[in-house]
Amino acid sequence: MIQNKILALRLLTGAHVFLITISNILVQYPFDLFGYHTTWGAFTYPFIFILTDLTTRLSNAKTARSIIFISMIPGLLISYFIASSIESLGALSWNSFFAIHYMPLRVAFACFIAYVIGQFMDIFIFQRLRNSSSWWVAPALSTTIGNIIDTLLFFTIAFYHSTHPFLSQHWPEIAIVDVCFKILISLIAFVPIYGCVLHFFSIKYRNKVTV
């Protein structure tokens, strides 16, 4: 059982890094869905909140916070360098490769602020609700509130008066649509996945909340 938990925590850390990286890149690519502006990041980022809830359930809040900090730095650095490389493909040179790319850097900074605040809020709410008689209450509410806070913070910091013409103009609409899609995707898909993973690892509800 202990070995399963250690393996699960390692996998969750790796998954955090991967999802931070891919989401930071995909959020810079908007598209229209049913007439609404959104970004591809709306389909990947909600999973981070379910991972955080699983981490908290598998261990405790302190370990979950540690994993958030461990995952954050490599995730932000990798996503920044990949996004910068994509941005500089039009003019390949050492100067363009090592130049500071304002848009990816601003997105990385926005992700840092939104990720930390959103994830800590998610952990805080989950801890207060984890002993609920219904297993889905804690991940559903913590993920919903965390997504709202994270999304509004991220889009405000990343795209308010940014150098990206489309995102600078439409970021309020995209933020609202994004958070709606994130909540919908989380409740329909990711919360049930959370329940399946809990069952797979045979995690029992604890009578005492660990702080």
From TrEMBL:
InterPro entries named in the record? YhhQ
Q: What keywords appear on the UniProt entry?
A: Cell inner membrane, Cell membrane, Membrane, Transmembrane, Transmembrane helix, Transport
Q: How does it sit in the membrane?
A: Multi-pass membrane protein
> Cellular location of this protein?
Cell inner membrane
- For whether the record's keyword set contains Transmembrane helix, the answer is yes
**GO MF terms on file?**
transmembrane transporter activity
Does the record bear Ribonucleoprotein in its keywords? no
Query: What do the Gene Ontology cellular component annotations say?
Result: plasma membrane
Membrane-crossing residue ranges in chain numbering: 7-27, 33-52, 64-83, 103-125, 137-161, 181-201
Pfam families reported in the protein's UniProt record: Vut_1
Q: Which HAMAP family match?
A: Q_prec_transport
Family of this protein:
Belongs to the vitamin uptake transporter (VUT/ECF) (TC 2.A.88) family. Q precursor transporter subfamily.
**Alphabetical list of NCBIfam families matching this protein:** PRK11212.1, queuosine precursor transporter
The protein's role, per its UniProt record: Involved in the import of queuosine (Q) precursors, required for Q precursor salvage.
State the protein's name: Probable queuosine precursor transporter
* Gene (name only): yhhQ
